[in-house]
Amino acid sequence: MDKATNKLVDSILETYEGDSGINFIDVTNLPVKSKIVEIFDMLMEIAFPGYTGKRRIARDSIRYTVGDIVCRVRHELAEQIERALKHKCRLKPCPGCDCHEMAVKITEELLNQLPNLREVLKGDVQAAYDGDPAAESFEEIVISYPFIHAITAHRIAHELYVRDVPLIPRMISENAHSKTGIDIHPGARIGRNFFIDHGTGVVIGETTEIGENVKIYQGVTLGAISFPKDERGEIIRGQKRHPTLEDDVTIYAEATILGAVTIGKGAVIGGNVWIKKSVEPGKTIAMKSTKVLERGPGGKSDKQ
């Protein structure tokens, strides 16, 4: 390297000294992002066989195809989970734990959940079909609706989240977020027959709880009001800070619901409202009607 390049490299290396968490020199136990995406794509193939067209799925060979995917996921996911667990141990040592054994166990638990996850996802597809008159078929929904990618990612990531797998649940959810514009934290608990129409700009926070048969539209935020801090001024983690939506709730576009409030069963939240208090079951919350100003050809104004 020439003198100028050497000087520049020295300057860059100086910025690495003392860093924690933003460089990974000498670290070989982090999950690999491209591998996580690849594993998720394989799980999507199990959930919706043939949807990508990458594999030809035929009834006479489907057992072989699914078996092949399961074997690959079993090996590759266990390896990535082991990396994540070892990274956690590196940050907070846990003498006596066996990261390999734990990774194998968690992987098997996830694989054993796949039949149930498929049934839940079928309900989500049905909810999308029932909730969108523009949908002409289940195939259209599975192949083209960003919601399906987002909710599949969430339901898989959530299974790993509840088993205390570090890093990987967020990697799965943020990959889906980047592709769909739908941001669902893997900690959120979401019931059956869920549907997000359009989807772009939806944010669902970590401690959100959503019941069954819930429908929300684009731009909805289920967020926190503020982050409580301890006596040292550090954020207190793990507390309930996001909304609960009971069964049969509908939330229209751009509504914002903040804090550990409850939206009661069957309630309807209109578009663009801002809510920080609980809503009783069956109630409708909407903005007061605005007046529309129209100007005729001669410039005369009419208020409606």
TrEMBL record:
The EC number(s) this enzyme carries: 2.3.1.30
Known catalytic reactions: L-serine + acetyl-CoA = O-acetyl-L-serine + CoA
Keyword Transmembrane helix on entry: no
InterPro entries attached to this UniProt entry: Hexapep (IPR001451), LbH_SAT (IPR045304), Ser_AcTrfase_N_sf (IPR042122), Serine_acetyltransferase (IPR053376), Trimer_LpxA-like_sf (IPR011004)
MF term (GO), any: serine O-acetyltransferase activity
SUPFAM superfamilies, sorted: Trimeric LpxA-like enzymes
Keywords: Acyltransferase, Amino-acid biosynthesis, Transferase
Top-level division of the source organism's lineage: Bacteria
One GO BP annotation of this record: amino acid biosynthetic process
Pfam assignment, any one: Hexapep
Family stated for the protein in its record: Belongs to the transferase hexapeptide repeat family.
Protein name listed in UniProt: serine O-acetyltransferase
Name of the gene this protein is made from: cysE
